Amino acid sequence: MKQITSRDNALYKELKQLAASASARKKAGKTILDGVHLCQAFLQHRAAPEICVVSDHCIEHAEVAEILARCEKQGAQSISLPENLYQALSQVENGIGVLFVIATPQLEMPLTLSVNAVVLDNLQDPGNLGSILRSAAGAGITQVYCSVGSASAWSPKVLRAGMGAHFLLEIFEGVNLHALLSDATIPILATSSHTKTTIYQSDLNRPVAWLFGHEGQGVDPELMAMANETVTIPQTAEIESLNVAASAAICFFEQVRQQIVAKE
Amino acid sequence: MKQITSRDNALYKELKQLAASASARKKAGKTILDGVHLCQAFLQHRAAPEICVVSDHCIEHAEVAEILARCEKQGAQSISLPENLYQALSQVENGIGVLFVIATPQLEMPLTLSVNAVVLDNLQDPGNLGSILRSAAGAGITQVYCSVGSASAWSPKVLRAGMGAHFLLEIFEGVNLHALLSDATIPILATSSHTKTTIYQSDLNRPVAWLFGHEGQGVDPELMAMANETVTIPQTAEIESLNVAASAAICFFEQVRQQIVAKE
User: Fold this and answer.
1) Which residue numbers delimit the tRNA/rRNA methyltransferase SpoU type domain (chains A, B) (predicted)?
2) Contacts with B163 from chain A: Cβ below 8 Å
3) Domains plus CATH for chain B?
4) What is the pLDDT of residues B91-150, one digit of tens each?
5) In what order do the strands lie in the sheet with A77-81?
6) Structure ipTM
């Protein structure tokens, strides 16, 4: 394991850039997995990172030691930093000091949208995106398509909120949703308060593409018009709408419920 | 309407304190509703604010003018600020410049927990709390109990995430949950991955108290032991758990679904 002790070390400077700057991450095609849970999930579901970085305070920590051992066995570079240098990289408060640098996964788009999927139009909040990825993975949905302008799925914030869900999903970013939805071979469903069909009445025991949008403005009207069905989550009259990640969770798990009922 | 133009004005300094500091809000027993939507919702469901503050750039804006008129009619103080002074108060980016100062609602606790409710043990994230309040209000739940140590429900962040749900709910803070749950006359339900009963199998067509906990550690074991029933949201094996606000939304709306089915 390589020890870096100086702030002026070239690799340390590169790590700081990756930790602090979305454009640096984009340019390098790399991102950061911050904390024990994400690192373990990555090793479990994907592969070895490019670099494993640990705080020298935590090298003896059992979980960190195990992560380090697995990384070294798989040929990943490992680096230890003094606690103060490590803290300048990490966004996890009071966490155990381990993080991975990984290549940001780049997947080739499928030719058509044909399996149960989530389609996100201009979703902004990293916490909402992470929560939606987590709910999708929990509900057994495997594909997520994000429009140009949506929050970056592989940012450290979204990764933390996703709690490892990223590694169970195929995530496509910067997608032209108009083209995607035009060619879809499964029904496109969107939630709306201007419809009477509830999610409970809709047949969800089939693959569908769930379309959700911007926190304030919702789905772009042109894309909304491409939905084959609009469904509503019945709510008491006084409240305007649910948080988009809450709506998504309700939809995905109503689909799970209908799948369970159909199997019984 | 009073115009304040100096940063050194005593009332402006007080407003800055309220905007910036949780302890100042607590000490004053006041909080801030930031933006058109929250102000409108407060006027609709509650009453006039103590103070209505507007940016002088926005006085002519139709929605702001209407809010101002309603405030003045109801005897609230109104203040205009130059845009730069206003921006130093507001946390809403690119918003329309209107905010309310209100007395933080303080409700007397009911003697017993006897109506459909949400009970939150040490929930930390303001976005999660706001989302849970929104989902609860949407599902027709009226009472929310927050433990000592939970995020402050009336902070500007939680208010923004709640989108007006606060004004449809009775929110009790700093609650001794142990005492509350000991005396409850309705079943206490908690989610757990260590149980086989799914939320779909559980009878939710009755008032229940939904118990949720800390984002990392979950519900305190002693409180968890007070749950009459633990239920699970069935998930694919690989993912650890859902975001707490997503879980809550799924539970609340499964209850809504069962209520609808029972009425049919």
Assistant:
1) 117-252
2) 239-241, 243
3) 2-103 (3.30.1330.30), 117-263 (3.40.1280.10)
4) 887 789 999 999 999 899 998 999 999 999 999 999 999 999 999 999 999 999 999 999
5) A2-3, A77-81, A51-55, A98-103, A30-34
6) 0.95
